[in-house]
Design brief:
Strands 2-1-4-3 form a four-stranded antiparallel sheet. It contains two helices and four strands; from the N terminus they run E-E-H-H-E-E. Strand 1 (2-10) and strand 2 form a beta hairpin. It is of the alpha+beta class and 87 residues long. The chain has helices at residues 28-43, 52-61; strands at residues 2-10, 13-22, 63-67, 79-86.
């Protein structure tokens, strides 16, 4: 079971969160992308852009922050944080 915790932060307060569970087999990268897609659907967001610094952060810590600049549309939060909590 793959689980990822997605959180929206604004002014150092978590304003919304959800846990995405992905039971299917496959690569870790595929699970992360599918979980992020489902997270964005639940939060009614477009897909964020994976900058090189975000990829590096995620590879090192299984956790990444997407600031509002990573979204094509205007958003009402400071950043989206994703964290793998179970693999």
């Amino acid at each position: 079971m793959f689980r990822m915790w997605c959180k929206l932060w604004k002014d150092n307060h978590m304003i919304e969160d959800t846990v995405i569970e992905r039971p299917e087999a496959g690569s870790r990268t595929g699970k992360v992308f599918h979980a992020l897609e489902e997270c964005c659907i639940r939060f009614d967001l477009g897909q964020p852009i994976w900058l090189d610094a975000i990829v590096t952060q995620f590879q090192r810590h299984a956790k990444a922050r997407f600031p509002k600049e990573c979204f094509m549309e205007d958003v009402d939060f400071d950043y989206l944080e994703i964290q793998v909590i179970e693999e």
